[in-house]
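Q: What structure does this chain adopt?
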Amino acid sequence: MVGGAHLFYSTKGFVVSQYIRSRALGGTYFITIVTYQRRPILTRPDNVMLLREIIGSVKNQYPFSIDAWVLLPDHMHCIWSLPDGDRDFSKRIGLIKSGFSKQVKPEFRFNHCASESRHKHRESTIWQRRFWEHTILDERDFRQHMDYVHFNPVKHGLVQRVVDWPYSTFHRYVQQNVYPPDWAGDAQIDGNFGE
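A:
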């Protein structure tokens, strides 16, 4: 198994990955969703508002708790907790991605850049086909991923301090006294979390 995927060799010698998604009921998950060709479109003001609307609509239809979220220009990281007995984070991600793709302004669609496979499967040029998911194992794992989510804008050089990035649940946790406003300072967060 490599990075959440089991690798198999086809009869032609190519490596084929078969992704195994978590089947835990009512779990907490760290999720990474990336734009197609890492295009920096997500933090444009209209797109931020559209994404918020879509997420709210999906949450109303298929409830989940947002434990952490950071929106960066070309990807987002989040931690979700699903209700007891529910494990379908894939449906929620699919609805968020398709809702955004259908409603985003045409200037963000680059269908002329789409591969033959994307045309065949009627896929947009907004999102990468897959997403990264990790089941949160325990309180330590949860805390590490929370810190990673909130530190991510600093890691990518978008801001010098975590508090300066506007598209993050970090601000909610500062208001709740979970993080101090100057949290992380010049710190480095170790780990590979799906990027």
